[in-house]
Structures are given as C-alpha cells and as structure tokens.
Amino acid sequence: MNKQTGNIFIVSGPSGVGKDSIVNAVLKKHSNFSRLITCTSRQPRDGEKSKRTYKFLSEEDFLEKIKFKQFAEWQIVHNNYYGALKEDVDLAFSQNKNLIFDIDVKGALTYKKIYPQCVLIFIKYESLELLKQRLQKRDR
C-alpha cells in the first residue's frame, strides 16, 4: 500500500436516513474529498449507473477478487457482496485525497481495524415515522 496522505471518512446509518445526501454535500463543498466507489454483486436499482454509485460485478467476479485478496474490506449484506478495492483506496491516497463513502456499521468497524485513523460518522433517524416515509418515497 502507498504511504497514506489522506484519510477515510465513513458515514453509516439505517437505510433511508440520508447518508448519500451528506456524502454528496461534502463532495460538493470540499475538493480534497473523493467518493470511494465500492463494488457490489447486487443488481442495480433504477437510476444507478456502474462506476457512479457502485461498481456492479457478477458474484463470480466478486468471488475471484476475494480469492486474490483485491479488497481492502468486503462483507455480505442482505445476501449480496459489497466491498472496496485496495487499488481504489491506494489511488485516492496517492492523489492526496480524503475518501468519503457510506457503508453498514459492520463494514465501518472493519475499516477502523484496517485504518485506525479513519473517522466513523453514524447518522440516526429523527423518528421511525419519518424514516418510513423516506423509504416509501425512495422505493416508488
């Protein structure tokens, strides 16, 4: 791994709580931040484009990358694989960029073990009713 010059900022929280909105606001305001595009084996949702929201891989391709230890971190979430490629983390650090992205809490804790200096940010919902409304609106 290259000498680290940036840091990692991880935003976690329940689905629909606004993690993407927070990440997007930071990226818009701070040019020294870059979004870490993670890989997944799940199917794209409407409007998601490969290499913009996720790198969509077949399960076979994902498992091959696991076999060759190409991931900095990976997890199985809701029967799908998710992970970040080491080369993407190294590239951002070589460009003096801070990385920001959202993942689940389990993945965030794994990153904390690998990159102890990383910053973990947990976002909670204001109320269950508001979260329910946001999820229903998103899934339309």
From TrEMBL:
<dbReference type="InterPro" id="IPR027417">
    <property type="entry name" value="P-loop_NTPase"/>
</dbReference>
<keyword id="KW-0418">Kinase</keyword>
<dbReference type="GO" id="GO:0004385">
    <property type="term" value="F:GMP kinase activity"/>
</dbReference>
<feature type="domain" description="Guanylate kinase-like">
    <location>
        <begin position="6"/>
        <end position="140"/>
    </location>
</feature>
<keyword id="KW-0808">Transferase</keyword>
<protein>
    <submittedName>
        <fullName>Guanylate kinase</fullName>
    </submittedName>
</protein>
<dbReference type="Pfam" id="PF00625">
    <property type="entry name" value="Guanylate_kin"/>
</dbReference>
<dbReference type="InterPro" id="IPR008144">
    <property type="entry name" value="Guanylate_kin-like_dom"/>
</dbReference>
<comment type="similarity">
    <text>Belongs to the guanylate kinase family.</text>
</comment>
<dbReference type="GO" id="GO:0005829">
    <property type="term" value="C:cytosol"/>
</dbReference>
<dbReference type="InterPro" id="IPR008145">
    <property type="entry name" value="GK/Ca_channel_bsu"/>
</dbReference>
